[in-house]
Specification:
By secondary structure, the chain is α/β, with parallel strands linked by helices. The chain folds into 2 domains: 2-63, Aminotransferase class 4, branched-chain amino acid transferase, N-terminal domain (D-amino Acid Aminotransferase, Chain A, domain 1); 70-227, D-amino Acid Aminotransferase, subunit A, domain 2 (D-amino Acid Aminotransferase, Chain A, domain 2, Alpha-Beta Barrel), CATH 3.20.10.10. The chain is built from 6 helices and 11 strands.
Length: 236
């Protein structure tokens, strides 16, 4: 993302990793949400990045529980929103930035319609992603997810794909329409904050039998196992 917007990160990956670990240690956190932010740095009120010669780095850590609480057991209600995901030829959804206005407007619309999460369509009418997560649709034991031309190449999305392949499920990146969404057996979303969460209702329509499905449950369990049993120890 930084490369795509010509922003040079003034820290190596190893240095960033150690800075994140040190931030967690300073805040006595072992189960937390982590948000590293790189800004262009101090400058004037204009739009020319050349006026911000030295980038700044901020690391935010916050104690974090289950984002959706009990809804992991019963499933989320999702709403397909009228606002479209940013077009990739205007502002690529693959750029991970703090420009969340598109996402926030979608979330507002979903909230006003009684939804827990929004589902974006792209400008061609295909399913894009949620307001803060990627989407997976399951039909007849086969898993599909939209190609990332119209949504973020999420880290959790990539982990989910690896997990599903290890469990020997068929998974394909393909354009998904509203018909596929409404007739799905199961739907789940993935994201850093959401982790893996089932969707059991879309636009008032029940998905499958209205409960988190078997593949979704296996996916959630496998992801939880990885996050709880692997990774870099905070305290060496």
């Amino acid at each position: 993302s930084a490369t795509a917007i010509a922003l040079k990160i003034p820290m190596s990956k190893e240095e960033m990793k150690e800075a994140i670990l040190e931030t967690l240690r300073k805040n006595n956190l072992t189960d937390a949400y982590i948000r590293p932010i790189v800004s262009r740095g101090v400058g004037d009120l204009g739009l020319d990045p050349r006026q911000c010669p030295t980038p700044n780095i901020y690391i935010i850590t916050q104690e974090w529980g289950a984002m959706y609480g009990d809804l992991y057991e019963v499933g989320l209600t999702a709403i397909t929103v009228a606002i479209r995901r940013n077009a990739p030829d205007a502002l690529s959804p693959n750029i991970k930035s703090m420009n969340y206005l598109n996402n926030i407007l979608a979330k507002i619309e979903a909230n006003e319609k009684g939804g827990d999460e929004a589902i974006f369509l792209d400008n061609n009418g295909y399913i894009s992603e949620g307001s803060g997560d990627n989407i997976f649709v399951i039909k007849n034991g086969k898993v599909v997810t939209p190609p990332t031309i119209n949504n973020l190449k999420g880290i959790t999305r990539a982990a989910a794909i690896d997990i599903l392949k290890e469990m020997e499920y068929s998974i394909t990146e393909v354009n998904i329409g509203m018909f596929d969404l409404y007739t799905a057996d199961e739907i789940f979303v993935t994201g850093t904050a959401a982790e893996s969460a089932p969707i059991t209702k879309v636009d008032g329509r029940m998905i499958g039998d209205g409960k988190p499905g078997p593949i979704t449950k296996k996916m959630i369990e496998a992801f939880e196992h990885i996050t709880q049993n692997s990774g870099t120890p905070i305290n060496p």
